Structure formats: C-alpha cells, structure tokens
Amino acid sequence: MDSFIIVALALCSLMAPVYGDKGTSKARSCSDIRQFYSGKGFSLDGVPQSEISGEHLRICPQGYTCCTSDMEDNLATLSRREMEGLLKEAGRSLQTLLNGQFKAFDGYFLELLNRSSISLQETFTPTWGPVYTQNSQVFSDLYRDLRHYYRGSSINLEEVLNEFWARLLEKLFYQANKQYYIGGDYLDCVSKQIDTLRPFGDIPRVTKMTVTHTFVAARYFVQGLVISGEVVRKVSQVQLSQECMRAMMKMTYCPHCRGMATARPCANYCSNVMKGCLANQADLNTEWKHLAETMMQVADRFDGPTGVDSVVLSLPSRISEAMSAIMNNIEIINKKVSTHIGKHEQLCCPNHVSDVTVRLKDMQSYWVSLPMLLCSDRVATGTGAEEKCWNGMNRARYLPEVMGDGLASQINNPEVEIDITKPDITIRQQIMQLKIMTHRLKNALNGQDVDFQDSSDDISGSGSGMCADGVCSSSPRLFGPATNRPSYPLPPENKEVKALANQNLPCITIYLLSLLILLLRR
Questions:
Q1: Where do the DSSP E strands lie in 316-370?
Q2: Which residues form the signal peptide (predicted)?
C-alpha cells in the first residue's frame, strides 16, 4: 500500500508541469511590448523575450511583467514628457486665441486713432487754415501721446489732456493777437487761468471725461489680453512633479508592462490622476474667471454712443467746436467739420469687441476643464467600459470617488500623492498677476488709471496751475505792434509777486475776461 502511494505521488509530480503549461504558469511572450518600446525610440537591450517576475517594479503592480526597472524608469520619464507636451500644446492653442484677439482689437483701436488724426488734418487744414497749419504740432503731439498711453507708456493721461487745452489756448490767443507783442510768460499766465475763464466752455471737461474713460479702458483691456496669454505661457511651462510622473506612468504604460496594451484607463481613474497632476493649475480658476468677467464688463462699455468708435472719431469735431467757441465762428465751422466727420463715422471699422467677448466667455473654465480635456481621448468608452477599463491594477471597475478641483481638494487623492501645504510658487505668482490685472480693469470701468491717480475730483480739461505759480504782473504784457516799438524783457521772477498773486487774482481774472470779450468781438 505504501509503495502504491509513493508511485502515485511520483506520477503527479511528473505531470504537474504539463498541466501548468495549459494554465497560468507558462510565461507569456513580450513581443508586443518589445515592438511598442522600440517604437518609442528605446533600445531593446535588456528587454525580456518573455514575462519575468515583477518584484523589482516600483510603480507598476508587482505581478509577472515584461518591464525591467530601466524600462519602467524610461517609460515614466516618457509619460511625463508627453504630458508636459500636451499641456504646452493646449496652452499654445489658448495663447494663439488670445493673441489673435489682441491683434484684432489693437489693430482696430489704432486704426480708429489713425483715422481720427487724418480726419482732423483733412478738415482743419481747409477750415482753420494758418491757425491749424502753424500750430499743427499741438494736435500731432496730442495724438502721439494718446497712442503712447494706449500702448502702455508711463504717461499721465489727464496731464496730457490738460496740457493740450492749455497749449491750444496759448496758440489761439497768440494767433488772434498777432498784431501785438505778447510775452511768453504772459501767455503762460493766460493758460493757467483756463479753469476760471473757461474759454472753451464745457467741452474740455466733457471730452476729458469721455476720452479718459475710453482710453483707460482700452489700455487695460489689451493689457488684460496680453497678461492672460503670458499667464498661460508661464503656467504651461511648469514641470510636473515626480508623484505626477509616477501616476501618469501607472495609468499610461503599466498596462503595456502587464500585457494589456489595449486596456484604456477608467474615466474616473483618469480624472483623479489629472486632477492630482494639475491641482495647482486648477487654483488659477477663481482669479482667471474674475479677470475674464471683468474684461467682458469693460468690453460692454466699448459699444454704444459713448463707445470707442464714437469717442475717438468725434475728437476732431470736439476740438473744432472748442476752437469755434473761443474764435466766435461756431456756426460756420461746426457745419463744415460735422459734415466731413459724419462721413468718416460711417466708414467705421467692423466691431471686433463682440467676438472678443465670446472668446473670453469660452475660456472662463479653462483651468478646471483641463483634466477632462486631457482625458477625453484616452479613457475607455462604450458598452461595459467601466467593467473592463484599466484601474491602475487590472481590468476592473474603478471604485474611488472623483476628487474636486484645486490643491486643497487633493488631500485624499488615491492616485497622486501631493502635499497641499506646498503650492507651486510660479503658479501663485501668476495668480497674483491675475488679481492685479483684475484690479486695474475694475478701476478702468470707472475711468480710473490706478497708475496715475489724480487727487483732484474736478475733471476740468485744463491745467490746474494758477497765476500764483508763475510771474503775472498787475498789468498785462500786451504792447502795440512789434514793428512799431521794441520788445521789452519780462521782469525776473520775484517771490514777493508770487506771494501777492492770490490777492490780485480777482482783478486779473476780470481783466482777462474783458480782454477775451474784446478779442471775440474782433
């Protein structure tokens, strides 16, 4: 009996390998992954011909595998490189969109400025003659400064407009009194009385208000487009963490190591991996949305009767109307100018603002939609996909819940180990840039340039200095024709005169008003 048992055991031991070959103990071929691995540009040196034990693996499940440690490292690095490439590609697409909107609006606004400048030249030359041609620099300087301000130069827009009206008053005052010699200091004194005299009526104040609102809004609107593109560029260049690389490797290439090359990730599994990898990027969402919303509010202000087209193209007629007020030819001049300007307004450029608004609305959820975007073409789909997808370990349903968006929501992310107390510095800097830009745009909605806050609430459209800041004698420096008598130099600056200037102001003002009335009657 004992001998029978021994013989039976011996036969079983001899037959065991035969039954094992038909089961799971036979090592599978690694031909598929060898072909795949070689196609990715890696050498086949050391790549196994058939499955080996996977105790050496540090990322993929440690069952039988076709991947060595070197292969796992190489594929992990590849997965990060490919992911970063996808992020940069997505970023470039958004950058291209933003750059296109910037070019469209920038070209549109500069074209309005150019046409307004040309319109002024074409209408003022026949209408105002030498009054314009001999003082054209005043107008060209205005348009130059407006253009520079819009393009971001460190120019105080209110000071530009104040200086323009003050210089224009000096030129017109001098032009109307060419038969007299008028000293430069006296002209300067006249220009400083512009607030009191109001020779241009209410036009400088109204023009300053509309021009300031329009140009401040346009300046920061295009800056918003530029800053948005820069934020996308810089964030797209942020390197992914080692933990993200491991998670991407496990999701993307571990199926190949397990001989499941056709297995695609479960949808929720992919979401958790991407949300973990892009946790810092998702934190941009709040400020990104705030910026987009504020820019849309600014864009809405560009339409209507006080919109960009109306303000910029009507600037020549506004200036001409102001000049007419002081030269007492308002009816004839206005008829000529408004007729010509009206033709130009009908040639208005196509409105690009509405298109920009649509694009801004579309990009609002960009940062939190990235995980879904990057998972869209890689997850398992179709009937029964949830049961047959790759869940990080095998083909089976993925059980963990999907995490929320942002760094703080990843504290329990089962796929990407992440320290929520250590946010990415580069991305935090970009969040601050978005906050600053939004703050500027919100001020721009009220016509306020935060870089140049004017302490005065009075939008007067003129220089704020008075005669107390310069030399004004108690009697005017108005002499007879220069050809009949020599010119006399103005007295040197006297500090006592400055001290008495405020006391003499009412008298001087009455005199200058009388002088202007006399001038207008000429």
A1: none
A2: 1-20
Of 244, 249, 254, the C-alpha closest to 394 is 254
* Number of domains observed in the structure of the chain: 1
Helix (H, G, I), strand (E, B) or coil at 29: strand
Output b/e per residue, 407-432; b: 16+ Cβ within 10 A.
Answer: bebbeebbbbebeeeebbeebeebbe
- Residues with Cβ < 8 Å from 444, sequence gap 6 or more? 216, 217, 219, 220, 221, 298
- Positive or negative, the Cα torsion across 361, 365, 367, 373? negative
- For residue 142, being part of any structural domain is answered with yes
* Contact yes or no for 314/372 (Cβ under 8 A): no
Cα–Cα distances in angstroms (integers) from residue 436 to residues 10, 228, 464, in the given order: 83, 12, 30
Compute the Cα dihedral for 48, 52, 55, 59 and give only its sign: positive
8, part of any domain: no
Per-residue model confidence (pLDDT) at position 326: 77
Matching residue, tokens 């997850």:
379
Contact 378, 273 (CB under 8 A): no
Q: Which residues contact 233 (CB under 8 A, 6 or more apart)?
A: 91, 95
Q: Choose the weakest-confidence range: 88-92, 289-293, 381-385.
A: 381-385
Q: What is the mean pLDDT of residues 124-141?
A: 93
pTM passes above 0.85: no
pLDDT tens digits, one per residue of 136-154: 999 999 999 999 999 999 9
- The helix (H) or strand (E) run that includes residue 262 is none
**Total Cβ atoms within 10 A of residue 519:** 16
- Please indicate, yes or no, if residue 209 is contained in any of the structural domains: yes
Measured CA to CA, the distance from residue 478 to residue 519 in angstroms comes to 13
101 occurs within a structural domain: yes
* Amino acid (1-letter code) at residue 138: V
- Domain extent for 310: 72-343+384-446
Burial class (CB in 10 A: 0-12, 13-18, 19+), 112: buried
Longest Cα separation, the chain: 154
SS3 397: coil
Rounded Cα–Cα distance for residues 63 and 393 (Å) = 10
